[in-house]
Amino acid sequence: MTDQTDLQTDFIGDDVIPHAAEPTEKKRVLIVDDDEDFAASLAGLLELEGYQAIIAHDPPSAQRALALHLPAVTLVDVRLGVGNGVELVRAFRQQSPDLICLMVTAYASVETAVEALQAGAYDYLCKPFHSADLLATLERCFERTRLMEEKRLVAERLGQMQRIEAMGQLTGGIAHDFNNILAVLLGNLRWLQEHVQTEPQLAQMVDDALEAVKAGTELTSRLLNFGRREGGDTARVDLGEALPDLMRVLRRTLDDKIGLSLELADDLHEVEVQPAQLETSLLNLALNARDAMPDGGLLRFEACNFVVRPDDARVASGLLPGQYVVISVIDTGHGMPLAVRRRALEPLFTTKAAGKGSGLGLPMVDGFVRQSGGRLGISSNPDEGTRINLYLPRAVQSRP
Q1: Which of 16, 42, 202, 236 is 20 to 30 A from 314 (CA-CA)?
Q2: Against a cut of 0.70, is the pTM above it?
Q3: pLDDT (tens digit per residue) in 162-202
Q4: Residue 350 belongs to domain with CATH number
Q5: Which strands, in side-by-side order, build the sheet including 258-264?
């Protein structure tokens, strides 16, 4: 059964969201100092405070360590036995523009400080320094890193939403014209249907053509909904009734090699959504999961109540604090590497072969969830399957 500890890490859009129950990765700091004893002592202090310290004693090894470990902050001594700390900071900034560099020296001067800042150093510490001052400075550096990352993610999300809106306008125009064509086909086929009843073979062909027109109409409806901010009519949905009905449909649709299961939490809250879009979204996710398991596997649907608190990391990605119902679609397929996960919600992005996928499925599901006031999360690794979490707000409780 899904509960809050199962939702430890997922992607909300492009963002990695760690749950509080999951141990977070240590903050990495690169120490560059030719004094081996001082560097080891400083590294020991930082390790005790929960940091991961990497040590280098000269510029070449420091640049290799930067490329290998990707630290967020580096402490660089101004005077190195081989090379110059200020020049190393300048090289660091070219190698990794987001790296935060702190200069450390026992020979402080205004000229050196100005030169270091001009080279791209963020701050300046003079030996000997109190450990409290160092730790406070490091916390300020990592807070700056966090804010820079949030700004980058917001900019990426804004760009993605603008692309989705543009795609919505384009697909809406195409769908409108296509609907006009389908209307002509539908009218003519219905006329034919009335006049070929005495010829079973022709009648069957007309019925097949009408089914194709119906499928085309459903497709244009999905395209018209894509990218829209406004939704259609919503209704309160009891997932305890809706999801078992969906399972019956999926058992007839999916390959016999795919096992299907459903687990619902007790006292599951209702959600207020567009029922047809909810069903279409879950069918879409099920078909994606089927494609990820060409040799068979297990597809699980789970649903549970979930509370997002103000200090939850998911809030940074736009999931407002409050009560939600989380619908999880979990497969045992080939999973997604990080590069694919980060692009999974981009319109027209697909890893499927030509003609096998449009790249609109997940963006459409994401659009539906956002219209409903929620967010979509992705948790996946290569060869470990994929979990898609739909965070849907709890329906407003009716007043007694």
Answers
A1: 236
A2: no
A3: 666 666 666 666 777 777 788 888 888 888 888 888 888 88
A4: 3.30.565.10
A5: 15-18, 9-12, 375-380, 386-393, 322-331, 297-308, 258-264
